[in-house]
Structure formats: C-alpha cells, structure tokens
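During the reporting period the student researcher (J.K.) took over the structure-prediction task from the postdoctoral fellow and processed the backlog of single-chain submissions. One of the processed entries is reproduced below for the supervisory committee.
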Amino acid sequence: GGGGVMNEKLLGGSKKNHVEAERAFTVQNYEVNHKQYCGNEIQTSKYSFIPLSPRFVLWKNLWEQFHRYANCYFLVVATLQMIPGLSPTGKFTTLIPLSNVLFVTFLKDAYEDYKRHKRDREVNNQTVKAFRNKQWQEIKWADIAVGEILEISRDVSSGEFPADLILLWSSEDQGLCHVETSNLDGETNLKLKKTHFENPKSRAPVFDPNRPDAYTGSLSCEAPNKDLYKFEGKLVRGDRPEDISAVNFDSILLRGAKLGGSTKRVMGMVVYTGVQSKLMMNQQDSRHKISNLEAMTNKQIILILLMQVSLCSVSAVGLGLSTSDFADHWYYIDSAHLSPGLTALLGVGTFIILFNNLIPISLYVTMETVKIIQAQLMNSDLSIYHVESDTPCEARTSSLNEELGQVQFIFSDKTGTLTCNIMDFLKFSVGTTAYGTGTTEIGRAAALREGKVLVDDRPKGIKLQKGFYFYDERISDVVGDGRRWNWMTQSNTADIAHFLKVLAVCHTVVTEEGKDADGMPTLEYTAASPDEACLVAGAKFLGIQFITRDATDVTISVKQPDGSTVDEKWKLYEVLEFNSDRKRMSVIVRDPKGVLRLLCKGADSVIFERLRPEQNEHEMQMRKTTVSTLERFAAEGLRTLCIAQVLLDEREYADWSPKYKAAQEAVGGREQKVAEVGEMIEKNLELIGTTAIEDKLQDGVPATIELLRTAGLNVWVLTGDKQETAINIGFACSLLHNAMHLFKFEEGATTEKVSYDLANFMREAESMAHKDPDKDLGVVIQGATLLDITADEASQTNKDNFLAFTKHCKAVICCRVTPGQKAEVVRIVKEGLGKVTLSIGDGANDVAMITEAHVGIGISGLEGLQAARASDYSIGQFRFLQQLLLVHGRWSYKRVVKVILYSFYKNILLYLTQFWFCLYNSFTGQSLYDRWALASFNVLFTALPIVAVGVFDRDIEPHRILSLDQFPELYDDGRLSTLFNTKVFWGFTVTAVFQSMVCYFVPMLILSSGPVDPSTGRNLGMFWMGGTAYTAVVWVVTGKLGLETRSWTWINHLVTWGSVSMWYVFLVVYGSMWPTLRIGQDWYGLWKFMLKDPQHWLTWIIIVVVALFRDVVWKFYNRTFNPRLLHKVQDWEALRRSGVLKEDFNYALMEREYPYVLPRQRLKEKPIQQKFSPPEEPHPHQPTPIIKPSNRPPLEEPSYVLNGGGAGSMREMSQQHLQPPPSQPVVHHHYPSARRHTGYAFSQSPNQVEVMASKFRETPVWASARPSRRAKEATPGQVSIGSVVDNSTGSARKPSHKSLSYNERPRQQSYLSQSSHQQPHYVQLGSTQSNPLSFER
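J.K. obtained the following structure tokens:
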C-alpha cells in the first residue's frame, strides 16, 4: 500500500498536490471544492495496465528489477554475448536464464498488484448518501468531494466512514456517537465521539438533518497530516464572534473507522479525502531493512567479482602471449595480421562471458523462493498460534527470516508484552489507610528473594469478579448479596465514598449493554486504556456504579447502607484528557451539592508536584504514609495512580474558561496551548488516595526469558514504571536473579555524576567479565539518566562507556522511559555494537522502537494492532518468541547459509574447470562444455535440491533447544555468525577450487584421447572429456550437498536423485536433437559412447571419491576428535532413533559426560533454603545422614549419576533396568517439591554408604558401589548427592563414579574390585529428628 500513496498523488494532477499551509473551504460548495482538492478515489497499486502509462507494469517492474546490481551485471554479460565472435558459449545462454528470472519476478509482482487493483475497485465503487443539488443522492465513494455532507448508516457498507468527517448529527441522544477503530489502529474498544458543539449564542441555525441545505459557513483547519489523534479547526458560521466555534478531535470521524455500539446513523461534513485522509497518509512504506546475511553476501559478491576480474586478466594476458607466439608460425591461420594487444583486449570480453556465472544468476531467485516458503511455514505453525485470541504468527516480510536466528539483543516493552494488559483492581488507599489483601506474582518473587514466603491472605470461598480481585473485610461485601459493604460502617465512610465517586466520575469510559455470566443484563465498560475501565469497574463492585455520560452530565448510582440505590448527576464542564506528556487526566464538575470541583488522577510524579502546601500535621502525615504505601504497592509490581481534587472558586473558573476555549479554538499548536492552560488550573491539589491494580504476567514469560538468556541473548526491558516496580518485575519474570550482580544508577543524578558512574561501572563490569566470564551482570537505569547518554546533545564519551558497559550485561532494565527514548536506546546499541537487535511490543508507543531495530516483533494485544502492523513479524504472546527465534530463526539462518554457500560453491566449481581448460587451449576462450549444458546447470540439475534443503533441513529436533534441561546454547551458531563469515565463505571457495582441479585434471589424464565417431569421422576427445567432467561436477556438487544435508525427507530424495537423473535425460535428449533442431551439434550422439564406456563411469566415480574425500575426513575428524555440542546432540539423537538409547538425554548428562563441548558453563544461582520435615519411619538398619544435595543443576528426567563413561556407558544404561535387591526393605521419601526428587543410599560395607539420587516417574535408578580411595574429605554431618558416607566417623567423601556398576537383575549384582560380597545396607535420604534436612534448590 505504500506505493499507492505516491500513486494517488498522481491522480488529480498538480492542482491537487500543492502543499497546503492551512486548509480553508466553503461548506457544500461542490463546484469549487472538487476542483481544488483531490478526489476520494484510492489507488494502492504500484503499476498500471495501460501501455502508454509511465506506470505500465512491464516498464516499471523492469526498472525496479534492474536496481539490483546482479541483474545489471548479467544484462551486461548478455549484451557482450551478442557481439559476433566474442562469446564462446553462444548468444543466448545468459539472456535466456536472465529472462526467466526477470519473468518469474514480473509475474509475482504483477499478480500481487492485480489483487491491489481488485481491492481498490471494490472500495471505490461502494456507495454512500450525499446531499448534493439540494437532495440526497447515492454516489460512489470515489466521487466524494471536500465540504459535502454525507449520511452514514449501519445498513450501508457496515457503517464505515468513506472519508474524514466532522460529526454534525447522530441518531443517539445528546449527539453522542460510538465508533469502532479496529481497522484504523487495531483497538477493539469503542471510542466516544460528540457532535460538533457551537456557541448557543450564535445566530446561525444548528444542523438539521431534515434541512441540510440550511447549514452554511466555512471551515479553516490544519493541512492534511498523518496524526491520528489530533485535529485543529475553526468553523465560521457568520460575522459575529459568537458564530465562530472550535472543531476538536472529539468530533472527527476518520476514514477506516466505522459506527459501533448502539449508534445506527450519523451525518457529517467531509474534511479530507482520498490520499489526504489520515488513514492513507499513514499508509507509507516502512523503512527498508536488509539482513546482515544479505549484506555480508553483497560484500562477498564484490570479492568474487574481483576474483573474476583477476581470472579474466590472467587469461587475457595468456591469450596475448599465445597470440604473439603464434604470429611467428607460418602455418597459423592469418598469422601475419595477428595483434597480441588487440587480441588480449577483445579476449577480456570473451573471458568475462566464459566465467560470468562465478556469481550465480539463480542466487536471488533461490533465496527468495526459500524465504517465502519459510515464512509460510511460520504462519502455519500451530505451536505459535494463540487459541484464545485466534492469533497465528504472521510473517509480514520474508527477507528477515535468517535475522531471527542471529539476534543478540532483545528490547521488550512491559505492559501488554510481558504482561497480559488485563487489569485487576487489587488495592487502594484513602487518607492514611491502605486497603486490600492478596499477593501478586511479582510480590511473591520479591519475598522469595528475601527468604520469605507470601501466601494469599484472602479467605477461601470469596467471590472474585473478572477484573476485580479486591478483598478486605473492612471494605468488602461479606454477605455477597451486593447490597451492603463494610466500608459503609467505617469511621471514614464519607472519605471512602467520595474516593469511589471520583473513580466513577473522572474518566472517559463508554458504557455498553451486555450480559453477565448468568445471562442477566449488565453494563459493560470500554475505554481507551484498560487501567481506566478497571478503576471504574472497581468502584462499581464496591457500590458506586457509573451509569452514563453525555455532553453535560455524568450519572452514577450510589448504594446506600440500607441496600437501596440513589442516582446522582454530576454536571460536567470540561475534560482535560490524558496524554503521555501530561501523565494525568482531569474533569471539572459540579457535584449534586453544587460544589465546583476539579478531579484529577495521574502518576505520583506529576500529582505530588502539584499538591497544595501542607495545611496541617494530618496532611503531612498523610503524604508520608501515601509515599510509603506507593512504595509497598510498587514492590508488588502493581500499577499505581494518585487521586486528587481541588475545590474551584467560581470567579477563578470564570476567568480560566475563556482562556481554555481560546486554546481549544487555536489552529496550530493547539495541543500545547491546551496543556499550558490546563497547568493554570491543575494546581493546589488535595490528595485523596491511591489505587493499585495488577497486570499479571503472561503465561510462560519467566521460562521464556530464562531460556533466551541461557541461549546467550541479552534481554532489555524498556518500561515507564517506577524503578522498584521494574526491578521486582525483572525478578518475577526471571530477567534478574539472586546470583546476578546488579548495577543501579542514582535517581536524579547530575550529568557529571552519571558520567562518573558510567566510567566506574564500565571498569567494574570489564573486571568481572575478565575474572569470571560466566558471571551474570545486570543494570537498572532511569529515563532521566538516559537523557545524558542517548540524547543528541549527550557526550560521545557517555555513549561509548554505556555501550562498553552494557555489552557485558545479560539484563538491562530502563524505567521511566518515553517512546522516543525507547527508539534511541535501540539505535545506539544497534549502531554502536554492531549486533542484531530485536524489538517487541504491543502498542502504538512501541512502533518507533519496533521500526528502529533490525527485526521488529509486534504482539496483537489489547492495545490494538499498531505495533503488529508496523512490525516485521507478529505473534499473539511473548512466549511464542522462543519458538520463533530458537526454532524458526535458527533453522532459517542455517538453511539460508547453506543456500548462499552452495550457490556460490557449485558455480565456482563448474566455471573454474573452464579456467583450467584455458591453460591447455592457449587461452583461446574455447568452452569445455556445450553452451546449453552450461545454461541448464543452475536450472535443471542443481536448483531443486538446494531449495529442498533450504526449506526442510533440520539438524536437531525442535525440543532440543526449547527447554532449559536441553540445549538452548545451540542458538550460538547464528548469534555469533559462526556459519557464515568471510572465513567460512572462502573456505567453501577453496574447496570449490580444489574440487574443480580434480574434476578437470582427472578426466584429462584418463580421457586425453577420445573415441572417433565412425558415422562422421570426428574425434570426440574434447567433448568426451567435457561430458565426463560435467557429469563429475554434477555428482560432486550433489554429493557435497548430501554431506551438508542433516535430515533426508522423501522430498529431498525425490529432488536430489531426480535432478541427477535429469542430467542423463538431458544428455540423451539433447544429444539426439541434431540435425532436426539445428542445435547440439558438438554433443550429437555423445551419449551413445559415454554411457556404454566403463572408462566414463570409472572416471567420474574416482573423481567423486577423491573430491569428497577431504570433506568426509574433515567431518569425521571434527565429530570424533574435536566435537561440538551440536555433534554430540546429533549422535545421541541417532542412538535414540535407532533404539539403542531407551531413555532420553539432557543437559545434566551432557555436562557430566562431555563438559568440554559446552560453549559455556551455566551460572549456578545461589539457592534459597527450604526446610523439609523428617520422614515418619527412619530406616531400621542405619542412622539417617543429614543430606545437603550438591549445588548442580537439578537432574532432569531421566537423570544418570555417571562420569566419564562415554557412549558405551550410555548404551549400557539404556539397556539395563535397575532394581534394588528384594531382600532388603526400601523406604521411599518424596521431597515436597515440584521436581519430585527421590533419594536412596546403600553400601557394600556397614560403615560406608554410597548416596545416590534420581528423578523418576515409575521406577528409581539403583546402583551398587564400593568405597573410593580417592575420595576427598567433606564436612562431617553433611553429604552431597553422589558422595560416600563413613558412618563410623560421620565424614563424607566424593566417590569415584567409575566404580559404579549398573545391573539388570538383583541376583546378578557385582561389586567392582571386591574380594568379598556382603549384604548392601540401605539408608534413606532424609533427616534425623534432631537434624532436619536442609535442601538447596
């Protein structure tokens, strides 16, 4: 749709494209307006299907395609081939493949544009009622003009607005209109609009739906712009000042929105049409993003081009020298006229043609095909489909698939991204008293860090409503009949009642009629902010219910102590709306007693600075208590607001009101002027209380963040919350942990202090990273501090120190940041550290951050679809990020890398055989292969196998990287760019050079003298050798791809062997065409000799073995003597698939078996002590030792206590089912933990016990052991799992795990190196009555 914006500007000519400083027009002046302003026809298509148009699809598409340098390069080569006598490969061998590439791309683009044309026609041909020529007429949307009056009905086009309108009349009472804007900004909640309000003193007639022609005047407003939430205009209905009225955004109906709720019909005046509507102004092309892999490929193309130039230069010099030598021989044709210099110069063009496909012509088409299919696989992946919201993954671009597998930094919003954005009213305070019980996830996590355990103190059986999780016996309706609440009997009942009334009055919530869970009619609240709807619902459930609001009144229902209700009307004068700069909203109302009040709610930072001077000791104490309460609420991760008011003096309001009206009528800078006037009256506030609502974490957020961090990614959370709230949320979602060293900047620090702290923190972080590379570091920084780092005027030293410092931090929390600061943080990290960045968010305030990052992820949440629409990929929940990055991203990276490397490798191999042939043909430029065989190489014989690998190749099963007990470290390949860099690329190039030499010189030595065709008398030596070399090249590149393929599906087999078979089909068919089709003369009948000659078959088999021998040996060496973690995981997966391993394996086993393959040791977090009660029945034969399990990762199912056994031990364990000897009783002790560990111990000697532990489902793992002489002494009385206990001394020692013997049946027990067999003694892992078990988790 981006191109459509530009195209629409071409529709109406230059008179409709002039830049407007301000728009001014006469109402209902169709003849003038439709000529002066652009029409309402939209055109989102890029191309025209009219041949004479400058946007004709063929010309414009070719122009776009030749902006790719590769296409231009091949066009030059194709042009050189047309020069007679210059091309050794024919005239069309480059032009035809290039044409195919251009044609396929052309068809794709043309089809997509045809669908745009079709949608445009459907939209433009919709009809609407317009008042024209003093009557209502049905007209097409495309014919709408500025200044016309339209009637919009729910019965026509679903009530959608065809242009930007000023609301003049509504079928609802009080001129209100409910609007749904989901097509505009993605928000599903209804918005409330009001008909344009004119001064009652004006003499101009108000709008009458029965007499629209009587409505006259002129409108002056701002020029068309893309701001969806602002409009400034002035309507002039006459000559008197009273005839002038301001037009506000509250009265604007935007194109893309439609009627909602109970609104059936409205009328409005057109302001902006077509391309100048706000919807179309926002449909622009997003910033073009190119993946790092593609950028690196472009650099390698330049190097390959230099390589080609070098080959051409060497060959041209060789041609010149050969020509000079031939000039001295009388028998050489035309030797007297040979010019070595001119021949060499012309030879440059010949060799450019000969070696032209060192840069593969099929690269871009293959990559694009693979990426499009990859994107479709993402879209159809059910594991990232959110059932509750019916939201699948949507890849809005396929060009960044591989970038998902290279992410280093993740920048995340909090609200709606990490949290559900579903608010629950939990606590509040009035005066000095706080109310509310219960705990939050974040509060429990904060308490657990301090060794405390929080429990929900709400009584069981209480009825909690959706969005209302509040309970306090001093406040709540204990009976549950909704008739009376305990707050009505408190000493401060009047204060609580007034507090709840403020919540019910001070808002912009819209009511709708709905039904509750029992099917009974009820009022439902919708609001632009979930917080606001939650507060109004909270007041409702506590007895003060918001009923309705119109332009002048707010009606609430107040419960009385006797259970009855009384309706109250509060006169509404002004609404000072919330925005991200003000961080507050206010209403000016007159209560039922006639008192004029300003009611205000907002962030504590803006409310406290506007409070009146403390009047008395009580007010001073109240503020101190409120600060403490806010801190406590913040520690629980609750979203807090302060509630305040001021009693207005009638004269003060009378003086202020005209200023506010003038600010509202201003055209230009209206928002700023309104804010400035609002500051005049929002002062000297009296604090009433606070609210605290909970926004729960989404499912799976802690596990996802921990998994991503274990995979090596750095996670940054950018939020507007207070520091303490942000820190607690960080701990609750596993972004921070106890073992992490956390840096904190001081709040309100000066620029000098910030610079000083940055330098110190940087040195300290670098020192920690040097001493312990596995140490996790984190930092918390405020938005005010970031101004001294990210702002344009900030010093470069601060920016450099910040980047040097934070690159060592696994977790960064930026709190109190604005949307602009979010984008600035992403930008400096992206530009300064050169790593791939990813931003994820769900709201309009995250769009700047999303578009700034290398990859933008949008969450389709309750804040609308703005973020999702601006993103590269959209998902339904944060937890799906792990599947998107670790599985799809990693696979896409590995697959696209193989596509790129293989595409270059196969072409370099083929065309370098041409270079070796030049050494033996005096650099004449003679081609070793037939021209059409060359042209078919990238199309018929090698195209499909690499596409299959690029789409289906899987090196491991997905679950191997999606669990903490598995191997998320495998993501490192993309994150560290180990699979594609200059070294790897040129490694493949060197391999291609070597294999090209094998493919040329082996057949040259074996087949130097070919057979003679008896039918023609031709010697087939060169063609015989060329055909065999070509066959060898096809087999070698296919074999190389087979070695790089990690998973063979039936599709891989089909296309791989089908492509090889296609070569033999081509050889036979093409070799039989001459002379019928006058092509293929050189290879005519060649297949008859090649396919029946054993020398041909033996030659290419020898070539394949020799060429691929190095690859096989290298892979064998790496997997056997220098294995990586991936190799071991693949080996064990192969054992599992073959049935050798009966049980699954995990990280803990890998850490014990092959610790040297792990890229890094996982951080062992300092455990939290938990006490467990002793067992009821101690073992009768042995005192129970005190067990302190070792501080290693908990053994995941199944767990083997084994060290150094190798693959043989793995097989042994998998084939043996271990049971304890039946002659001894066994006491089971279940630890009361989620991991269900069960421990046992038994020994050969009564004085020594081998302590083992395992996690189990059905049967525990048993082992018998002997004492170890190499055991180390340990603290008496404490034994780690896997240690030896000497019961005579109480000491504990570490055993030699190699002494363990696993046996299938009890009667076959063996004790290694034991001369005597004694009955094993069993003990239970538990505790004695005097020494309770201390279990570290």
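The committee noted the following: The chain has 37 helices and 40 strands.
J.K. will present the remaining backlog at the next meeting.
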